[in-house]
Amino acid sequence: SLLESNRALQRRLTHAATAFSAHAFLHERCADELVSRLDLLRIAPETILDAGAATGALAQRLAQRYPGAQVTAAELNQALAATMPEVGALKRLLGRTRAVQRLAAALDALPLGDGSVDLVASNLALPRFAEPDDVLAEVARVLKPGGAFSFVTLGPDTLRELREAWGDVDDGVHVATFTDMHDIGDALGRAGFAEPVLDVDTLALTYNDVGALWRDLSALGARNCLPGRQRGLTGRTRFGDMCDRLMRDGTLRLSVELVYAQCWGTAGPHKSGEVAIRPDAIGMRRRDG
I need a surface site. Which of 94, 112, 121, 131 has the fewest CB within 10 A? Predict the structure, then answer.
């Protein structure tokens, strides 16, 4: 069930917490990119929420970028949150008079008041959820009218090669599928966000062996915890066959599709439960790299 899957994910994140930062090169890159994109918004937020902060990489960058703002790092998994720098040490490190606050909270049930945050940012937290609607609705609720929401999530081409290699050897559920950029745009519209702009950045990751990939996935809590996954051990023969298909000329190449989005909070709730956005008002562009 989905509830069991969520519990399995939390167990994996808890187990991975101590090694997470050492393997989170993708999170670090995305955190840098998210902060650089905020320069385009020309905002001066007083209250900032890092939604799904993990070990706090984005929260620290936001605190540096906006030294006068109150930054709150929301993370449900307490093992991950415990690896964030201590509040006092972070104040000294950043030369801030205000500490980065930690908040134990699920993104689809934030213990924050309506319209209480100027800027919400989220770094690769949406892939933890099978559907984005509940999270986006909650972000829309806590965001001030005219506040900004900036996030990055994973697109459907992520781990495509791994998904195809498993598909060649069995019909089991091994690799998650991620939400398409256009579907994310639709979900932002349903949540009532204004002027969404989305674009895609496709990365190619290279490994010398499957073991290195598995160590990264394990350290990020990203091993298979999907509903419908096989409960027993995968046979050595099938796993070996999958690895043979994944490795090409001694090299393993994996795609990662990153979907970046920026949008604005609206002036108030839509009483009808619907919001109209022209198709040409959703800006989208694709960048491969």
Answer: 131
How far is it, in rounded angstroms, from Cα 61 to Cα 67? 10
What CA dihedral angle connects 181, 49, 90 and 41, to 10 degrees?
A: 70
Task: Characterize 95-118 residue by residue with b for buried, 16 or more Cβ atoms within 10 angstroms of its Cβ, and e for exposed.
Answer: ebeeebebbebbbbebebeebebb
Helix (H) or strand (E) holding 258: strand 251-264
**Taking each helix axis from N to C terminus, what angle separates 210-219 and 2-23, rounded to the nearest 10 degrees?**
110
Secondary structure of residue 102 in the 3-state scheme: strand
Q: What is the pLDDT along the chain (289 residues), one digit of tens a residue?
A: 344 456 666 777 777 667 777 788 999 999 999 999 999 898 999 999 999 998 888 998 999 899 889 999 999 888 888 877 665 555 555 555 567 889 999 999 999 999 999 999 999 999 888 788 999 999 999 999 999 999 999 999 998 998 888 888 877 777 888 899 999 999 999 999 999 999 999 999 999 888 888 888 877 766 543 334 454 445 567 888 888 888 877 889 999 999 999 999 985 433 333 444 444 444 444 444 4
User: Which pTM was predicted?
Assistant: 0.80
